[in-house]
Amino acid sequence: MASSGSAQLASLTADVRFALRALRRNPGFVVAVVAVLGLGIGASATVFRVVDAVLLSELPYPRAAALVQVAERNSPINTWLLSTADYQAILDQQRSFDAFGVVQRGDAAVSGAGAPERVPVGRVTAGFFAALGLAPEAGRLLEARDAFPGAPAVVVLSHRFAERTFGGAAAAMGRAMTIDGVSHVVVGVLPAGVDALAGVPAVAWPALQPRPPTRRGPFWLRGIGRLRPGLGVADAGRDLAGISRRLMPVYADWHDSTALLTPIPLREAMVGTADRPVTLVAIAVTLVLLVAIANVATLLLVRATARRHELWVRAALGASRRQLGRLVVTECGLLAALAGLAGLGVAALGLKLVALIAPDLPRLAEVTFDGRVLAFVAVATLASGTLIGLPPVAAVLAGPTAASGAKPEDMRSGSSRSTNLMRGALVVAEFALALPLLLGAGLLLNSFVRLERVNPGFDPAGLVSVGVSLPNQRYPDYDAALAFFRRLEQQVSEAPGVAGVGLTSALPPDNGGSTNNFNLVDRPVPSGAAEPVSPWMAVTASYFRTLGVKLLEGRLFTEGDSGNAPPVVVVSRSWAEHYHPRESAVGRQLVSGGCYSCPRTTIVGVVGDVKYVGMAGSGEAVYDPLTQSNTRSVHVVVRTGAAPGAAFRMLREAVGALDPELPVVETTLQDRLDASLADPRRWTSVLGSFAAAAALLAALGIFGLMSFVVRQRRREMGVRLALGAEPASLTRLIVGKGMRYVALGTAFGFGLSVLEGHWLGPLLFGVSAVDPATVAATAGFLLAVALLACWVPGLRAARVNPVEVLREQ
């Protein structure tokens, strides 16, 4: 038994040595195979880790499957946050959760041991931490007593922020820090590495102290609950639906009986719409890996065919088919192992690039290089090595040998029919897999170009903005806040180079969820139905002039639209056409925010459209005057010919002159436009890169196959030319043979593309998943690339010298 094992080990060692010598004689071939396969394996490992972290892995909390997010929902596609009334009702009546809490996500002006700065914060109740099952690194987390209005203001910090601000978790305990003008005491610090909770990134978690609600809205809280053992999401859904029905009669301002409190698995809520593009990229990289495997298998099959004479000699010296097959398997295994090592490097680099390519990806912090990546690369390497080895091994085992009576000259004469069929099938597969990728990239590119051409409603050139939030502690009266805003607007308007200045509560093209529900007085929604919702901004009249938004009908706001005057709004053209088609909207009235006891709001003007819900959204918007809004957070928008840096410096000085403790958030409107297009640009680029790689690999595959055909049939070509055939006819022969493979692969590719449309549809703007122009352009491009790849070997066939060929024979 021992001698048998030693003999097998010796045989394997000899095979490895032979394979290494054979590969050293062909360094170009080795580099090509390792590069193609390594890139495919590495890219696949990178995307696998992203998919695993974002879509598959459990959340990093105890018993994470029991965590849900609770939201309002009146249809499968319409979900929104909770109100204070919802939170209180759930807290008092629910029977499904071991713990339930809420969080308000936002930014705040914070000052600790250093200068004031604006940072992300999450205002939470004690149940939020309890639901997630967290324990502090130092101190304590929030308790129920911290949530009562009037209780001492306390805050929990992230480890990183405590270290940066106070020098460490222990040093932060008991220290005071100011958040939006209110002094808070640090009572706890979270463990290191916890920089986001339930998808909410924050460096400070102050206690939220909601006051008793006076009406059902507004909706501003994200609810998080932990299901009791033995209960599922459906059980919680029934419990919350009952709370919704009991809550309806309590608040007469709420008319939507279709809206129910709904539990959503927390992982699903955190991933949101990211699952579709991530899955699309995973499919794309899988197709590229399959194209790479088919390409390498074709190369190895051609190499095995070219070595048939060598294998015949080995067979003549006593090697069996099994031994010959084992030699080929060993070579394939070594190539796959080298590709796997290269794939590890590609994956390590790819995972670092993920944060740059998709910085807003959910659960991004969990996308790390770890044992799962190593395991995936090992499995992918083994699978790839098996797949690339099957065709050449099959060719060797099925081919003629000396033992079967074949002559040496037979081994030079060409390939068997089965080998030719395998090579053709591999090339067909490459084109069948490449077409869906190209078509998807073409559709996304077409969609992106259309999106870029959308008019945002303003010219971003020269528009800069700083965000300013006034803390209630220092500005408890809105008249004081309004006086500050007026002085700031006046001071900035007098600065050199300023062509216009205006204030707004939300910036285009993404308004960050600033919406409001309303009901038309002359055409109210049916009883029990959901009220319409629209983007809703508080602005000064000069805001429209600063952005260059034209007044189309009626008037803009005036000094007479004060807080004591009847409420008024200005609406956009799309809003007016939607809710008052074929009639003037000016003078019409509506009820906003569900407050039917409040004075009715009158529409006084119609202005041009501005995009507030993304470039793909409608231009519907409603504006009310800043003087009637009671908002303490505004963006100062300035049109200037100065460079952004100089403009920001001027704005910082203007704010600092009025209140030196106020931090500002700087941005340009061009940056906001670019950010709005970042996701479609990103996914178009990623899928386009994969599509280009697949098309290149497919082209190389058909080029290699037809080049081999020319070499294989060189004698035939020489004879044809000697008998008077035109050189062009040989080119047509080779090109025609190659394009038949391409046409067959393209036909199969169209079939796969039908399945792709299901995933692409929601990502497209202004173009369907079966857009004829894009389909034709994509197929035409792929055929043109294939034609060029076939034409080069065709030219080589036409240049065969018949005299030299016949002399060689």
Amino- and carboxy-terminal Cα gap: 52 Å
Give me the count of strands.
25
Question: Uncertain regions: pLDDT < 50 for 5+ in a row?
Answer: 401-414
In percent, how helical is the residue content? 40-55%
* Number of helices in the DSSP assignment: 24
Output the radius of gyration. 34 Å
Beta-strand percentage range:
15-25%
Determine the structural class based on helices, strands and strand pairing.
alpha+beta
Report the biggest beta sheet as strand number plus sense, adding barrel if it closes: 12 strands, mixed
Describe this entry's structure for a reader.
The chain has 809 residues and is α+β, with helices and mostly antiparallel strands. It contains 24 helices and 25 strands. The strands form 4 sheets. Strands 1, 2, 3, 4, 5, 6, 7, 8, 9, 12, 13 and 14 form a 12-stranded mixed β-sheet that branches. A hairpin with a 2-residue loop joins strand 1 and strand 2. Helix 9 packs parallel to helix 20. The two termini are 52 Å apart.
Output the keywords.
single chain; 809 residues; alpha+beta; elongated
Topology, element by element:
Layout: H1 2-24, H2 27-56, E1 67-75, E2 78-80, E3 82-83, H3 84-93, E4 97-111, E5 117-124, H4 126-132, E6 138-139, E7 154-157, H5 159-166, H6 169-172, E8 176-179, E9 182-189, E10 196-197, E11 200-201, E12 204-206, E13 219-227, H7 233-247, E14 260-265, H8 266-271, H9 275-306, H10 308-316, H11 321-357, H12 371-398, H13 408-412, H14 417-452, E15 463-469, H15 478-493, E16 498-504, E17 515-520, E18 533-539, H16 541-547, E19 551-554, E20 568-572, H17 573-579, E21 589-592, E22 601-607, E23 622-625, E24 633-640, H18 644-658, E25 665-668, H19 669-676, H20 678-712, H21 714-722, H22 727-760, H23 772-798, H24 802-808
Parallel strand pairs: 7-9, 18-23, 20-22
Antiparallel strand pairs: 1-2, 1-13, 1-14, 3-13, 4-5, 4-8, 4-13, 6-9, 7-12, 8-9, 10-11, 15-24, 15-25, 16-24, 17-18, 17-21, 19-22, 20-23, 21-22
